[in-house]
Fold this sequence. Notes:
The chain has 579 residues and is an alpha/beta fold. Helix 11 (250-260) packs parallel to helix 16 (426-442) and helix 13 (332-349) runs parallel beside helix 14. It is 39% helix and 21% strand.
Amino acid sequence: MDYTQQYKIWTEKADKAYLKELKALSGDDKELKERFSMPLAFGTAGMRGVLGMGIGNMNVYTVARATKGLAEYIKSEEAQKRGVIISYDTRRMSYEFALVTARVLAAQGVTAYLFEDVRPVPMCSFAVRHLGCKAGVMITASHNPKEYNGYKVYGEDGAQMSPEATAKVVKYIDESDYFDIPMADVVTDERDIIKGKDNYCLSDNITVIGSSVDNRYFDEVAKLSLSQDEVSAVGKDIKIVYSPLHGSGYMPVTTMLKRMGISADIVEEQRLPDPDFPTVTVPNPEQPEALALGISLANKTGSDLVIGTDPDCDRMGIAVRDDQGQFVTLTGNQIGCLLMDYVLSRRADLGAMPDNAAVVKTIVTTRLANRIADAYGAKVYDVLTGFKFIGEKIKQWEENQHRTFMFGFEESYGYLCGTHARDKDAVVASMLIAELACYCLAHGVTLYDRLRGIWAKYGYFCETSKSLVFKGLDGMERMSGIMEKLRACPPKSLGGKSVSAVSDYLSSVTEYSDGKQQLINLPKANVLKYELGSDMWACVRPSGTEPKLKIYVSTAGDDKVKTEELNKLIQSELSACAD
């Protein structure tokens, strides 16, 4: 069926509320192709796309179809009663998509637990295991622009659904139509009536949940505290600024800070939920601009730490004062190393470091982490990009007791301490960075001093990433062509540094410059990585959720300026290769 036929079916079957949008597309061949040629892809990260009518967009019909496939999978596993937990963030249509998800599941006889209001990714992940669910659904597009929304699926272990389970769900989705999908009746669809409810029956198979699950989550997070004496001593005096960036983090982050005895100053312009995210270009704490209002407030209040979380509160960014008293934003690698070093050092100080301690990071995350972990006798495991692979390690070690998970992080501002959740957790990260700030203050140093101490001990690392955007229907094809070109003609040197090895994660082989080969013991992925010696490397991979080709470069050395200049040169050369 071609895109014009798909469009005709949608104009005939869609609800009247959407006909105006659909009819406005008539005659716009380019837009019709974009919306009706290719179904929105459903992968291990679920699906994510621009809001709007069409098979290639996020709307009530694509959400209902995906949920019908998920319901069929759960029924095939005879897990209807175990059910599905559903959470959602502050984006446009998030609540509506969550309610559609609950109603489709319920109509198929699958128990649905719907949060009474917005909740972040880590609370959804926690609730899957806490309630014994078969799966979880989080309605979010994470840190994407306001035009996007998404549908993220979790397995019964609380991590993003495995490739094997996803393949089964996709099979059922492909067998489903976009229309005429049964939905259970509910006693109300008014969001304001649902808010504040706990264990409230919305229909025979839909239960609204709230504070009872929240409190269990907060109790688990509180157990991860490592410096209660220091927090008790200075927590009431420390000045911290926090912004939820109009997202779901406000309630859980401020709850944990209050439990610690810390009263943070909130960026009022960004406190309330707003799907338009009017104060930022994109609601992404990776971008320094996202923390600008927080820094402005911190300069007025005399705060030394600014914390920002993204709309679904799984990523955290921070700004700290440098040695000149000026605010600087830290990278995800720098924040991750600060937190990891803090967790490992405090566990060692408290005599609570297990002999089989382990840290997990992604293959595009800094090797400064390896040097820190080695100093504490912790083993580092590299996994593919995507926090689900960190979650897989946690599950594996719970079953075989081979290692004890201490900390996990990825360069894209995602961190996890503890095993209560199986995805990145900005609530825990916010608690720990606030606790580290208290620890530093109690010992007469700053967070920036702490970071400089890490560099002085282990070396200075500079990590950068760059995204090349490929829009349009041929975007994926163009990215594929670039990856093929790089495989056929890999660079021999970058920035004057010889490429000592090339790791192709699609063929699962690392080939060294002397011709020797070594198998890569990780799942296949479309990733190329170039080793440059002295813990330096560069990497190219297509994004799994966006039409982007991502280029990562990590350089290391004793001289900060030279290390950064080398990084910039390698980025430029590799970008030219990928052009």
